[in-house]
Each structure stands twice: as C-alpha cells, then as structure tokens.
Amino acid sequence: MSTLQLHEVTLGYVTKREATLALESISLEVKDGEFISILGPSGCGKTTLLSIIAGLLKPTSGHVSFQSVQSPEEENQVGYMLQQDYLFPWRTIEDNIMLGLKIKGIYSEKTKQFALRWLEQLGLADKKNFYPNQLSGGMRQRVALVRMLATNPSLMLLDEPFSALDYQTKLKLEDLVYQTLKAEKKTAILVTHDIGEAIAMSDRVVLLSPRPGRIHRIFDIPVELAKTLPFEARQHPNYNGLFQMIWKEMESLGSTS
C-alpha cells in the first residue's frame, strides 16, 4: 500500500522583481515503510519539497496525497526532524519532548509514558531533568528524535539532521535512526547533501536536477545494502561502485554539493 503520492507537484514564487520556479512536475510514490533520500545541487528545492509534503507550503499546481496504514487517530501525522534540534533552552529535556503532545492536544499519562519509553530506549532516561545546554550535540539530536517519535507519526521527514555533528557522532546517529525507524516500520524521507549517507540509509535515492527541481533519476539501492546498518553498508563491496555512479550523475548536473 502506498503511503505517500506526489502528482505533478510544481511550486513557483512571485516577488516584485521576478517569478521563480522552484520545483516542476514532481511525481513520486513512496510505499509504506520505505526510506527515501533526496539528493541534488544546492538550491534545487529539496527542503522546499519536504515543506510541501509536510503541508507547510502549498504547491502552485499538482497535489500530495498521504494515506496511513495506522489507526485513524494516527493517520496523516507527520514528524519533522531538522538540522538544528530547536530545543527550548529554558525547558528540561522531559518538557521539550512533551511539547508536540501538548501542541497536538494528545498529552496524557499514557502518551507521556510512551515518550519516556523512547527516551529510555535511546539511552537518555537519566537526562530527562537536564537542560539542553548540559547535553552534547549528539544527545540533543537524540532528544529531537524522541520528540518526533513521541507523537507516533506515520511519516518521518528528516532535513539534514546529522550535518551539524562531528563525523563519528553522525555515523552513530545514522545507525540509531535507521534501526529505530526500520524497527517501527516508519516511512521516512531524508534530505541530504551526503551521497554516502543517502546510499547507506535508503531503499531508494531520488536525484533532483538544478532549479527548477525535477526528478532527474531514481537509484534503487541493492537489497544487500538497504538491509544493512549504515556503518556496515559503507564497508560493503557494492558501496563504492554505487557511490561513483551517483557522484558522476551529480557531476553531470553541474554540482556535487
């Protein structure tokens, strides 16, 4: 069953000076439980596309349909994880992860315990009374992940959530996020500039062309890579060949960023 469908999604901006076409005719189907990464040159509309999927922007034409296989009360919930954790510094970690529940009006003892179990599973139960400035960058991003998971969304949108971290922490968090989302059978879309990250975490990689962003090519990740933890996938014999293929395709578009 398809969770998400984009049909001929186009977005244009009009200002006093000019009209700009950011995205043009994006059609894509993302199946339930699938992990998709979106790559492309800077300014090609990757984050804009996520914002449209999240319902934060309305396309100029085309439409997005989203159907969850979860229960009706959970349907159409979308989780968003960004490059910055955006934790409120004056609130404790526990208070921060409860915010989504309170905003959505679903805060209760049951949902609170659900969120705290995630905090425990991600190794942060002993930090619930800490404040954000008492945690490392990697810990703060784990808190951001818990905050997203606490509302039990059916679709996860990840906008370069590891790019501000040091490389070792980034690799560890990639494995953690991959394991968590696969175990929960969540559908996820990751925007990244990192070809290696896209290959290591995804079932498919969508490459967008320079502005206006169009789907230039979709790469299917071989099962032996897609079913492997990201850190281990980078050591797989098939990894380098696929990396070079995507790199050359991006080069042909005029950018590797």
From TrEMBL:
SUPFAM superfamilies found in the cross-reference section: P-loop containing nucleoside triphosphate hydrolases
Gene3D superfamilies: P-loop containing nucleotide triphosphate hydrolases
InterPro entries: AAA+_ATPase (IPR003593), ABC_transporter-like_ATP-bd (IPR003439), ABC_transporter-like_CS (IPR017871), ABC_transporter_ATP-bind (IPR050166), P-loop_NTPase (IPR027417)
Top-rank taxon, per record: Bacteria
Location of the ABC transporter domain: 4-235
Molecular function as annotated in GO: ATP binding; ATP hydrolysis activity
PROSITE patterns: ABC_TRANSPORTER_1, ABC_TRANSPORTER_2
Keyword Nucleotide-binding recorded: yes
Name the record gives this protein: Hydroxymethylpyrimidine ABC transporter
